[in-house]
Amino acid sequence: MKIIFATSNQHKLREIKSLVIPGVEIVSLQDIGFEGELPETHETIEENSLEKAEYLSKKFNTFCFAEDTGLIVDALNGEPGVYSARYAGETATFDDNVNKVLSKMEGQKNRKARFKTVITYYSQDAYVQFEGVTEGEILEERIGNEGFGYDPIFKPEGSTKSYAEMSLKEKNEFSHRKKSFDLFANHLQQITV
Ligand code: ITT
Description:
- By secondary structure, this protein is an alpha/beta fold.
- It has helices at 10-17, 45-60, 94-104, 168-174, 176-192; strands at residues 2-5, 25-28, 64-73, 80-81, 112-123, 126-138, 154-156.
- The chain has a single domain (2-192), classed as Maf protein, CATH 3.90.950.10.
- Helix content is 31%, strand content 25%.
- Strands 1, 2, 3, 4, 5, 6 and 7 form a seven-stranded mixed sheet that branches.
- The protein is globular and about 50 Å long.
- 35% of the residues are buried.
- The protein binds inosine 5'-triphosphate.
- Residues 7-9, 12, 38, 40, 52, 68-69, 84-85, 94, 97, 147-151, 163, 177 line the site of inosine 5'-triphosphate.
């Protein structure tokens, strides 16, 4: 069974491709020659995840999944949240977004935050969603060079390392993305057995 993963983020693709579902081949947008933009027009992670999966599934008339992820910081009233990719502006880099979080969190004692991923699996006009959440805290400065996005400033609960100090394998032991993917994998195995 082949399933398209609708993402234009190569880091997400690498993380997802490190996870295996027996009997399932994950196909990237590059593999199918899709170079357009995925629509992301809503104000919740759930809706944006659905929008991306539905768009691709209908365009290619096949099984597809997408995910939307946000970093939710308590002291920032849930920001950057659904705007995580463009927190510091439409053309913001990972560095710009991290700088904005660090400066808004300067002097802040409550550093609690969480990553939330919602995967949407879309097939034949029906869909199902899977949520993965990892609690943690926002560090006072960047630590580590691995990973992407907000990884250098996020330390998951139960770890002494930031996400950016972890190998892919270590990150998968804590990862919000892996948690949602495990639920998705479980679902696929149940419906394909
Ligand atoms: P697609 O919509 O094409 O999948 P995107 O990068 O636009 O890619 P999102 O809308 O889900 O994806 O944006 C989430 C942003 O949150 C992303 O650009 C990163 O900056 C950040 N992010 C997501 N997952 C992350 C992770 O595991 N570690 C650190 N930062 C992450």
